[in-house]
Structures are given as structure tokens and as C-alpha cells.
Amino acid sequence: MSKFKLFISSVQAEFAEERQLLYDFVRNDELLNHYFEPFIFEQIAAQDTNPRQLYLEEAARCQVYLLLVGQQYGNTPVGGLSPTEQEYHAAGEGNAYRVALIKDLAGLQREEREERFFRQVQHDLSYRIFANPSVLVSLAKLSLYAYLKYKGIIREQSFDEQTRDDVSMADIDPQKVRAFVHQARMKRGFPLSEDKEPETVLQHLRLLRRGVPCNGALLLFAKDPQYFFPSAVVKCAWFLGEEAVKPMEDYKTFEGDIADQINQATSWVMSKLSLRYGQRNEEVQTASELEIPRSVIFEIIVNAVVHRDYNSGGSVQIAVLRNRIVVRNPGTLPVELTKADLMKEHGSYPHNPLIAEVMFQEGYIERYGTGITENIRKMQEAHLLAPYIDLSAEFITTIWRANDATHSVNDATPAANDATPMANDATPMANDATSPANDATDPLAENKRIVDSMVAERVKGKMSSQHLRECIIEACIVEHSVEELARLLNKSVPHIRNHFITCMVADGVLLPTKTPHTPGQTYITNPKYKKETN
Fold first, then answer.
1. I need a surface site. Which of 95, 396, 449, 478 has the fewest CB within 10 A?
2. Which domains does the chain have, with CATH numbers?
3. Bridge partner residues of 288 (DSSP)
4. Which of 8-22, 178-192, 364-378, 476-490 has the lowest mean pLDDT?
5. Phi, psi (degrees; rounded to nearest 5) at 453
6. How far apart are CA 42 and CA 274, in angstroms?
7. Contacts of 254 (CB under 8 A, 6+ apart)
């Protein structure tokens, strides 16, 4: 078979040593060299053709595109894109598997245009941060191995399919298996009866190999799962302030099987939330509800526990702070998905497919590939910011609380000096921004109507530029096109685009959800934006 073309892209001067290091590593690695042909401009001999055009053609033809992002944006003609950003878009248009590795700048600031490019990369891709050359090589190797697994060239069992030498059916709790069958029969019409032997049930669930329970069976049904997997726990900490610093008000570690961990952790988090009270009309009692829907907390914890990387020695960690809840799990996105895919209904590619199937049968997972969009919908119905996702180190989900326990959307913006890792990226709020807002087939259309109705109440005949700007910021809590904003605000499209959108994007207040000059472009308020005060 022919080799996969690997295009290594970066600002050339800033990453000259790193580019050569990666090139040499791939060429000298026995496995990677067999499957990949790396490309860097330094290895191309002088030619009569335009070198910049040659690089773009190579980027468009590559199967794997490896991007290094640092401090510098690179030389560019006035108003144009840097060579690196052009290569990035060319690879994307060619449907390459794109990987971003971000240099830890140790407190240094990126150039302004590089920062904007970085935000675009954050939106499009999962990424990892490297602090030194050895970490860079290690991350690149993991990414290329993941691609080979995705292509079916490297085959290995998932963690939950693997077995151990020190395990037997004596380690399985029959009562847990019967309880699962009872629940699965009610939820999904599971075909086996509760009187079936545990071996028969595990065999049906593909959790038994030659009479030995798989890792998934141990995590789900073992008498003592932590005996085999000590780090398979959920650690929860409660902080009264906005930073995860001691002293902690409360701390718990939840053990047991996967269902036990999910249920206990969800109940613990909910116990730390505030009640919100509705308006009192003629009723003496006022309606009350928790500030964040329980289903949102439950869904995020389920995802963290079920889809985590159990090969890692890390644990799922939950921090409840005054302004947010941060859920971290040692996991990554599968190669088949990008961050943008998470914001719409997508295929299911679980790291632990056998565990995921059991949790589906038991009703913990309702539908594959819809959890995040459902959470966005529920948060917006509660007039709260949608959950944000950061993939820079682990899989980190941030759920913003309303600090004053009200329904205010804008009051839930990120803190400027946030000590807890969180998402810095823009999160698309709707599946198709070009569709009419009243499209009943769009699961997020109702949330867009809610936001639009709130903004419409602020629209007047004569509005100052500042007032219009504030309306745009509020509307773009969910993504909007320029045309949609113009209709909402009763202004012309050129007026909104030329006097507001261009400037607000340049200032970093708004973020585009698609690459520049893409038809159907929409914009979303930067989650790092802090509400302006008079």
C-alpha cells in the first residue's frame, strides 16, 4: 500500500527545530515510517514552480495534517492569511485528519492574529499542549497511532474487552447482575430473564472471554471493582470561591461499580446547588427548582465515567465552585469526531463500547450521540450558558452557574483569572445556522427562539451603537448569521456587518463558527468575553 502523506505545518522560523525533529522521528520509527511519508518545506529542493502554491497543494492532498501553534502568526500580505493558516484550511477542505499540538508559552502572549487563529483551531479540533520536544514527539506518536487504529491497520481490544489473569466468576456479584437484568428488562426489553446464571448474562453482553470476566464486567458487576482498578473512582470537591484552592468545604471519593459512582456523584453535586424561586402570583407558595437541571449534571457525569480512558491512572474529578462546575475525565475524543461534531447529533464511537451498551440497556444512556446537544437545549431553557468543552489536556466540561442563582445568561460568563482548566473555545449552539429559526426538525431551534424573544424585547426604533452591540452579544449566545441578526434588530445586513460584526470579531468579542469566507457563516459570543459595564 502507498504511504499516508503527513503534512507538518507551522510558522517555519518559530518551529524550525521541532519540524525537523518530527520529520526525523517519523522517518526513523520502524512502524510509522512504514505507513507515513512526512512533508516539511525544508526537504523540498528548489523548483521552478511557486513554492507557496506547492505547499498548499501538498496540504490539500495530505491524509494527515499536523499543526504546531505557538506565539507567532507568520508573515502575511496586508489583509491576507498566513501561510500556516492557508495550509490549515487547505487540509480541512481536503478532508485530512487534522491534529493540533499547542506550545505552552509559559505566560507569554501570542500575537493578536495568532491568538485568533488559535481560537479557530480550538473550535474545530481537539488539541494537546506540549512544553518540550520530548512531549511533542510523544503526543505526535499517539496521534499517528490513533490514526492507524482508525484506519484498521493497528487492531487492539478496547479496555473493557480485555481480561486479567487474576480474575474469575467468583469476583462477580450475582446480585448486581440480576439487578441489571431487572432494570434492562423494564427499560429496553432485555431478552434474558432474571433467573439466568450470571455467566449466561455476561456471555450475552460479550463481557466473558473463555469463562473469564472482562474488564468491563469487573467495572460493572464486581464485588469490589477498586481492588482491580484503584483509580476507577469519582473524586468530588466543593469550593466556596471561584478558584479551586484550599480549604475545601467538602470532599468525597465515590467508589463501587460504575452505576454506584454515577448515582452517588450526581446526588452529591446536586446537594451543593441552590434553589431558584419563580414569581409569586396568587399562590402563597412559589415554584422552586434547582439552578441547574439534574439531568444535565447526570448526563455529564455519565459521559465522564463511561467514556473515560481506563488505561489512565487518573480519576474522574468534579469541582463545584461558586460560578461553575468542572468535570474532568482522563479521556480524549475518538479520531472519528471533531469538537464541532459534538454540538450536533453524531455517530457513536465509545472508548468502552461494551460498558456503553450495558449503560444503554440500563437506561443511563438514552440515545447515542445526542447527550451534549440535549444538555445545550436544557441549559438554554433555563437561561444559562451551554456547557463548554476543553480538550487541551483531558476531557474537561464546564457548566456555568448563575452566581446569584437567577436565570441571567450574561452573568454566567467566565471569570478572567480562572485557576481551573476550562474551555476557551466557541461552542456552536445550533445544528444548521442557515436553517430558519422556526424549523421544527432542529432540536435546538426552540432554544434559539427563546434567546431571540429575549433580545426582541430590547429592540426599539432608535438604538445607540452601544445598545445594538449589547443586543448582538446577547443574541449570539446561540449562533446567528448576519442576516438573522439584521432581521432581529430591524437593520440592514451591510449596517450590521460593516459597523458591528467586523469590529466585534476583530476585538475578539464574537467568534466565527466556520472558516473565513465560508457560505452560511455564523457567529457566537466568545465565552471568555466579560460583560461590559458602564
1. 95
2. 4-150 (3.40.50.10140), 159-228 (no CATH), 234-412 (3.30.565.60), 445-525 (1.10.10)
3. 277
4. 364-378
5. -65, -35
6. 59
7. 233, 234, 235, 236, 260, 261, 264, 265, 268
